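Predict both folds.
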Amino acid sequence: MNKRAISVALIALISSWPLSAALQQPQPEQQSQAQPLLQGDGWRLIRSLQLGSSKNYIHMVLIDSKRDMDKAVYGAALSKICRSEPDFCRVRFWNEERLVPNAISFTDAQFKGMRAEYIFNRAGHVQEMRYACTVVSDKSQCFSH
């Protein structure tokens, strides 16, 4: 009888184990929510990707396609995104969400769709804003695809 009670208890324990393990896993609504992404008039931050193990990021921004030739929209995005990054800030802009890359490197099509890029690196004494030549015609401020 003692063996039977132990066997029943062991079977009950084994059969309830997957259920208890599933109950201990955090449910989606219990997981911490990510902070809302920045946005402004004519632009929206899509994602920020960390550069290796540094604390530096490349920010991927979507510009409203109807306003992608308005330099003020780019400036407003930079002002909001880079204000908390006093030593390094890199921002890339696209006007088609499907072209915004999920990784730091990107395809030729994604490069061709990029509208602008901003880089600020205090240590390297670099601060540069460059636009696609289809956005600005000044060759000193643009890159061609």
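Second protein follows, with its predicted structure tokens after the sequence.
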Amino acid sequence: MIWLVTFVSCIWLIGAEAPPNHYVRNPRVIGGHDAQPNTWRWQVSLQFDSYNDGSYYHLCGGTIIDSYYIMTAAHCIISMQANQYRVVVGEYDLYKYEGSEQFIRVQQIIVHPGWTEDLAKGNDIALMRLSSPVLNNGYVEIANFPYPNEMLPHAFTCYITGWGLIDFGGSIPATLQVAAINVVEHSVCSQPNWWGSIALKSMVCAGGDGIVSGCQGDSGGPLSCYTGGAWRVHGVVSYGPAGMCNQVTKPTVFTRVSFFQDWIYSIVRSF
């Protein structure tokens, strides 16, 4: 039996308010480094207030897909009470207010109707409608989507970003992390010594080299790939192996955005 661990964050309290990235070689995302400020402008920090007392902590990543909508993982929705969440866009250092951030409350949560809380069955995707729009202040950007049903070739290099653990059992980084990560095509990822039958065609696998991976806190964040002449978000961080996050032949698994575009558009265009 394969044990899965969802990449939900550790509970680290974030101060009152709090941006973009800087290339320093440190082991992060796992196997990554500090991102350059104002680079991955569609990246979101999804934050949660457990006790409704204004003390938010980084829970998951997310992606700006519309001025009013954020995309994240369904397993990041630990409460359907929208007023317990906020998103921070233009974020870079979780513990510093740098003037690039926008703090926006969540108005509505829409979880994919096929989500069963079983990661192996997929559909690990959710949208959040915001109470006010993301404003173009020069530090944010609406993500581009891939072509409908597009699948990436084996070994294609993409990038994972987030504030997840820098090592299993380690600490959450202050600054946004980025790492190059190679796609593992479905015919490989679905082999028995990889993820087997729980690697679905509605997912993207990337990593599995024992060096680079997502980890707790990266859930819901984007897999960004340069395709069709633009940066496009091809995946939403979903799951990885129990124990150490960066295991050989156990790549990080993402919800494949191109598989869910009809559903996404049906929600975003309904308002």
